[in-house]
Amino acid sequence: MKKAYLYLLILFCSVGTANSQVDSTSFNNLNEVVVTATRTERKLGNVSVPVSIISQKNIRQAASLRLNDILNEQTGIFITDAGFGSALQMQGLSADYSLIMLNGEPLIGRNTGVLDLKRIAVGNIQKIEIVRGPSSSLYGSEAIAGVINLITKEEVKNKLTASLRYGNFQTLDASVGQFLKINKLKIQIFSNLFHTQLYSVRPYSVEKNLEPLWKFNHQLYSSYRISNNTKVTLLARYSEERFNSKFSTTNLGAVVYSDGVEKHIDYGINPTITHQFSAKIKSTLRIYHTNYQSNQELTTSSSKDYYDYFRQRLYKAESQTDIDINKHINLVAGIGYIYENVKSSRYDSESNLKESKIGYAFLQSEINVIKNVTTIAGVRFDNNSNYQSAFSPKLSFSVKPSSKIHITASVGYGFKAPDFRQLYLNFTNAAAGGYSVLGALEAKKQIAVLQQQGQIDAVTSDYAKLAVLKPETSLGINLGISYLPSNKTKLSINLFRNNLDNLIDYSIVAYYKNKAQIYSYININKAFTQGVEFNIAHKITKYFTADIGYQLLFTGNQDEIDKIKQGLVYTKDKNGVARKMELNEYFGLPNRSRHIANVKLQYEKNNFYINVRTVYHSRWAINDKDGNGVYNTNDEFASEYLQLNSTAGYHFKKNYSIQIGCNNITNYKDFTNLPTLMERNYFISFNYN
Amino acid sequence: MRKQNRLLTAVIVTVSLFTACKKDDTTTIDTTNNGTYKVYTQNSVTYVQNFVADTIQGYDPMSGQPIGATGKRVFFSLERSEAVTDTANKTWDLAFNGSKIWINGGVSGNKMGGAYNVATLFDNVTNAVDASMKVDGATRAITGYDPSPNTASNNGWYTLTPAPPLASVIVTVPGRTILVRTASGKYAKLEIMSYYKGGNTPSAADPKTERFYNFRFVYQANGSTTF
């Protein structure tokens, strides 16, 4: 703690000594151009859905290295870590329901629905656009809670960048980037290396938990203007992660040592060509291929070695045409095709490719007939080989009654396609009593085979529900107002409600003769999330700004609420005696905080800045302690927590800057519920730009 | 890596559910264990605390087999409100080992025992339906694990939280009542309140304190099906 105070003292002393002149903080970014909301370039102040922007400056001043670092400090975003990586939660919806894209193309390689945000380096990201609310009408599957689009833009002039950062736990981050402009050809290369002594503490293990972790990211972006009307771009990226794993588990003196490596490889290539046919018609053709693979091999001092292999590949071609019909009406139309395949040791046979083919078309029309009112109507149709097709319409409005007020309203459908695991998993845990989990497309087939072999004891009532999985669907409503009372203050508020239907969950569909369960996936649940998100940015003095964000969230499962109302849900009193549960004891979905807040205070003057950033999460339900299958006030919660981070930076000799920072100043620790939250750590970084 | 460890723990916990029981039926009530075995009656409901069903020291981290289990069942007579031994007269009504419970009927005993589970509060169960009584066969009459208590899928008396394959605690489901036909053909209603020592169900798997049954029952001595 002493160290932390010392740090703060140094920071504030330096505030006192830093001297004068202009400030460039621009919290009022309504004129900034965004692309994710409509697939066309629009000013932020004109879009009809809630969009927020994280600029490169924000990323740098927060000293964020990976995507989870910067997203964690955004309003309404809750990063959880339940063992499958850093998972994004937006509008109270799990990681499965947010689409994460790089330059408009989806990133793949999810583990149990989670795309690990730590995989993504943000050193070369110029801008992150976050669109909240269902966006399946433009982007298809997964865009239920919203879309996060990472954008690498072109620089204007030749430029070399380099940065080196070092911190506690031997955390090393090194980046080098070069931008070159040779006539009409622009090339941007970026490489990043990240290394840390893996930080995790397991209370029930004798593991020495400092095993190294390495991540490499390389990216090449180039563009070439063939003519005034035609431009081609190419984005190629490769990233690799390696975790050395050496650990032991102990149980009453019996110690088992495990040793091995886990390796992830992710690459993508994305050529595009854009042609302006006339002033009114523009077309873009995008080709995208990406590959994600994960290998894990462990040898143990006991009998069973562990081997896990997963490889996912995606090929996509898409054509989009933007037409300005007249000055009031604009159309965006597109068609595309996605072919995806997966190989995994957790499916029936590793050599068997599992495939998915999607053909889709979308159309969006933007109408500006009435002054200061924009109406956008869009629709997308996805036809898939493995599940029922999805139809996703969306309607949104933007109204500007005055230059200070901007009202947005939108209602749209979102969907999430059943993933490969839910379709194809074929996993039997031989060591744990031989239970099996079968994907929905495998279950009936496999059970029939097992029945022939006389291995099935009985099928359950849920067996009859095994069918072609439907996509999980949502209806999302967003209503927002932003208000600029003065040029020093910006207020915005957004109300949201998401109704989810056909949620996929696993259920027992049959029993083996030895009573071991066979699980499969069926569409069963309904859930909702609703809440309000509030942001205020205020310039207190010329140099001092404050940003405050808050989200209030309510979630629930409609079937559970109905059951509680019917008096069919019970809980226990403190003696363990059962009693009826009341509706006001119901807490909703687990792993969600009712209140999330962030406060960012920044002082910036000349070449110097310092900020203090706070993230607060109220308690969240983690364990159904009373065994009734729903989350209520009697259950176990992770305690609320406050995280405090701070960074200070100084820019000198035109191209150089130095940055120091401290994360988790209060040294908050919760090994069980926040396993990846590092204890208080300091860093220093040098940058050349 | 976390994944890996969770998997191991999942193995450990799940295996415990499938651990076969040897039918070497001699009673071993271990009252030297810290949780004190106690039976008392209050408002005509009999409470049984810390009825020990073959405690263990832990689970082998790799095989998942319980360490220190004898595999022996322990027996209880609802009629006599006490632990009994499985002697020649076979007067036991319920037999326990780990999370499994047997009745004295069907393949498990030669008496008139039977049972079934309902999703009704103990206090609200007013009568037993003899036609609903099941006996132990390939499936035991008393359903144990309920994977989905909020849908009342099988009215089992316990669930695992968090759900497998994560490391789980055996948590009794509130509002589950077991109707029992005793060895002598009388009726009783039974609620299992905790599977852990002192009735303190822990938050994280704790093998050393599990297999301590805490339950309550009403026994209808006159042979009537109503309570």
Number of strands of chain A: 38
Largest sheet geometry of chain A? 22 strands, antiparallel, barrel
Q: Give average pLDDT of chain A, whole number.
A: 87
**Relative helix content of chain B:** under 10%
Strand order of the largest sheet of chain B: 1-2-14-13-12-9
The largest sheet of chain B is:
6 strands, antiparallel
> How many separate helices of chain A?
7
Q: Which residues of chain A form runs of ≥5 with pLDDT under 50?
A: 8-26, 202-210
Helix content of chain A: under 10%
Report Rg of chain A. 26 Å
Oligomer: heterodimer
Q: Uncertain segments of chain B of ≥5 residues (pLDDT<50)? A: 1-33
Percent strand of chain B = 25-35%
Tally the helices of chain B: what do you get? 1
Gap from first CA to last CA of chain B: 53 Å
Strand content of chain A: over 45%
**Classification by helices and strands of chain B:** mainly beta
User: How far apart are the first and last residues' alpha carbons of chain A, in Å?
Assistant: 34 Å
The computed structural class of chain A is mainly beta
Taken from the alpha-carbon principal axes, the silhouette of chain B is: globular
Features:
heterodimer, A: 689 residues, mainly beta, 7 helices, B: 227 residues, six-stranded antiparallel beta sheet, globular
What would you say this structure looks like, in words?
The complex is a heterodimer of chains A (689) and B (227). Chain A contains seven helices and 38 strands. Chain A has a 22-stranded antiparallel beta barrel. Chain A has a five-stranded mixed beta sheet with strand order 3-8-9-6-7. Chain A has a two-stranded antiparallel sheet with strand order 1-2. The two termini of chain A are 34 Å apart. Chain B has one domain. In chain B, 7% of the residues lie in helices and 31% in strands. In chain B, a hairpin with a 2-residue loop joins strand 7 and strand 8 (100-103). At the A-B interface, strand 14, strand 15, strand 16, helix 7 and strand 30 of A face helix 1, strand 3, strand 10 and strand 13 of B.
